[in-house]
Amino acid sequence: MYAPRWGILKAVLLVPLSILRAVGGNMPQDSGDVFAALQRCHVVWDSPSADSSGSMPLGNGDVGVNLWVEPNGDLVFYLSKTDAWSENNRLLKLGRIRVSVQPSLFSWGGFCRQELRLLSGEIVVQAGDPRKPALLRVWVDANRPVVWVDVESPEPVHVQAQLEVWRTRDRRLEGRELFSAYGMMESPFPVIEHADTVLETPKDALIWYHRNSTSIYELTLRHQGLQSLIGKLPDPLLHRTFGGMIRGKGLTRTDRHTLRSTSPGKRFSVAVHVLTAQTPTVEEWLHQLQAQAKKVESMARTQARAAHQRWWQSFWRRSWIVVTGSPEAEVVTQGYTLQRFVNACAGRGAYPIKFNGSIFTVDSREPDEQFDADYRRWGGEYWLQNTRLLYWTMLPAGDFDMMRPLFEMYRKALPLARERTKTYFGHEGAYFPETITSWGTYANVNYGCNRENKPVSHIDNPYIRYYYSCNLELLALALDYFLHTGDKRFLNETLLPFADAFVTFYDRHFPRDENGKLLFKPSQALETYPSTINPLPDIAGLQWVLDGLLRLPLGAEGADRRNQWRRLLGQLPPLPMKTEGNATYFVPAREILADPINSENPELYAVFPYRLYGVEKPDLDMARRTYARRVYKGNEGWRQDPIWAALLGLIDEAKAMVSQRFATKHAGSRFPAFWGPNYDWIPDQDHGCGGMIALQAMLMQTSGDRILLFPAWPRDWDVSFRLHAPGKTVVEGELRGGKLRALKVTPANKEKDVTVFEPQ
User: Fold this and answer.
1) Given 3, 150, 283, 519, which is the most exposed site by the fewest CB atoms within 10 A?
2) Which helix (H) or strand (E) holds 261?
3) Which pLDDT score is estimated for 108?
4) Residue 43 and residue 338: Cα distance in Å, rounded?
5) Which residue, among 596, 612, 457, has the nearest Cα to 525 in the 3D structure?
6) Strands 706-709, 754-756: pairing kind
7) Nearest to 27 by CA among 717, 586, 758, 733
8) CB 285: neighbour CB atoms within 10 A?
9) How many angstroms separate the CA atoms of 498 and 413, rounded?
10) Which residues contact 93 (CB under 8 A, 6 or more apart)?
11) Which residues contact 108 (CB under 8 A, 6 or more apart)?
């Protein structure tokens, strides 16, 4: 379903914005109009949920909750944090909290309303008499590590808060459950999850924690031939302690797990303070928790909540896409908005967002996987092929603050990566495997547990044995981040160290052929083709990032770097392609030496993530032929078909796939943006973020200084939008009935770089 070519709205391009303003109705919606549209994306339920599968997500970027109301009127939520890593590198929940109002909310009548209010970052539950309902408001302070549960009742009530823990004893993980400790799945040693500790004191609070008294870190370094790093780099797991404290004015302990109001009242506030820290003793962790709670509670609640609301309003003002015109368009708007919200709820923590559930996993009810909320497929490791999709969404959305945890994790792991490269291959530079622990090693199960008669550099897992192109995509993301933000500190402390490490790795690691060109052998094309010569993702990736690096404003001090980049760019072999008759198209590699073992389309990496081909670029027809001939087709999970369709200007296909993707949630979850499990887990972050990238590309694409608007936009979708482009540029506009009604480009001198296509 190839869409016809577009016509350029030259009249719009030639009319100055001052004239457009003068004729009226020609400036983008103000924030009030946009907020009204986003408010329609709020999620409202008028009945309770049976269990955690009926939960709503909420978070402040680091601390998260999955919240639901049970039929008896209890408000329940799982508590999570982005850095709650166990001794076995599992990302655990902190606990489960139950808040009860007595008499029960539902004893006053059948009315119940639960609303996720996106604009203020809170969940509000109203129940009881609909004329004078009781209200429970839950918000995770956008600026502080605390969850607040506020209770307001027209009549005096008692409030009870209970801590529920399920890690009550040391327990060995076995069978299918070991999948959530992925790196240790074939370990000859038992994988033990240790119990949580609930304290007996104080009288006015509940305090609990999980403390890693053991760690797989040193075991992992020794197993992977990196024992020289022991003592040089800190163990990220040992003595990591995470947990919290529940307390509130007028509440006192009735047992180890329960707080209850001493007398009935109409207003209560329950605070759940959380902390993760690596401390030499439990006492030090407790001291930090108490000090943190005192500081948090020293700010007036009204002041803290106002600042919290300002953060969320600022978040929604900096970017939006509101699509209207049909029921499917409304679904797209809500899916896009909710996925961006879920990203924001977990995107500002100490570690990147987990693709396989983020911090919003709940009790699993999948066939053969009926485990507690700590379970997730693929465990605690990061696959960059999956993780990166979350972060490509953040550039057009202007969510740059949420990108930093990704770059920071890899930046901190660079010393280990350099040492690994020297140890395994005897040359300079650095590389990261496609799959890594949060400190940068292979997962032990991928490296291989049986090392008999194998060199230290041998990787057992054929899916990632020679998979190095992930480093180029990380570098491409870093380049785009700098081009958007102009952050000079990031350039010097992160981007250039990445460039030096990854480019040098490719320069030293691969030989040259008889023509002096790089010969990628042994190599592979993503996970799908495990043995190749000259795979397209590596060649396209190097071409893209080297060209981008050469455009950096480095001045005379960058001469040596530029010389290396130019030399390597000149040594790249051509992108692999094939001609049949008069038709030429890209192929995964120059030579494929083994049968495929996965279902990716490496040949299309010249379209995305390395945007060498696409709308308004040479050989668009060849790229489209490649897309049409792709072997593996799909529109779920990490599959990128809608992204490629949008970047190639295939309007009908992009529209259909984006609509389908945002309408396809996990059948067992109540929340409309909990996708999955697909290939990974619930909620599947790749599924929603792939739809976000595609929708953004349908609406706006950039190429150098050029900004292309509506390059794959359907005529029957109206839209209001605000997106970010390189050069600290913001583009805001409205399209109604296929006509551009308003456009604002900031800074104004970037207007000349905008090309507007006519929707079809």
Assistant:
1) 283
2) strand 258-261
3) 61
4) 9
5) 596
6) parallel
7) 733
8) 22
9) 11
10) 78, 79, 80, 84, 361, 373, 374
11) 127, 128, 129, 134
Q: 670 is written with which tokens?
A: 């109540």
Count of CA atoms in the C-beta half-sphere (13 A) of 483: 21
Q: Contact at 8 Å (CB) between 480 and 474?
A: no
Q: What would the pLDDT profile of 21-62 be if each residue is shown by its tens digit?
A: 333 345 566 666 889 999 999 999 999 999 999 999 999 999
Quick one: pLDDT at residue 27?
58
Average predicted confidence (pLDDT) for the chain? 94
- The confidence score (pLDDT) of residue 104 equals 86
- Tokens 């978040």, residue located: 315
Q: Domains in the chain, start-ordered, CATH in brackets?
A: 44-318 (2.70.98.50)
- Dihedral sign computed on CA atoms, order 620, 623, 627, 628: positive
Name 736's bridge partners: 739
Helix (H, G, I), strand (E, B), or coil: what is residue 414?
Answer: helix
Residue 197 burial (CB < 10 Å; 0-12/13-18/19+)? middle
Q: Which residues fall within 8 angstroms of residue 493, CB to CB, at 6 or more apart? A: 411
248: closest CA among 237, 235, 238, 259?
A: 259
Query: What is d(CA 703, CA 727) in angstroms, rounded to the nearest whole number?
Result: 12
CB-side neighbour CA atoms (13 Å) of 366: 21
Distance, CA of 502 to CA of 431 (rounded, Å): 6
Tell me the three state secondary structure of residue 719. Answer: strand
Average pLDDT value for residue range 592-610: 98
509, 427 contact by CB (below 8 A) = yes
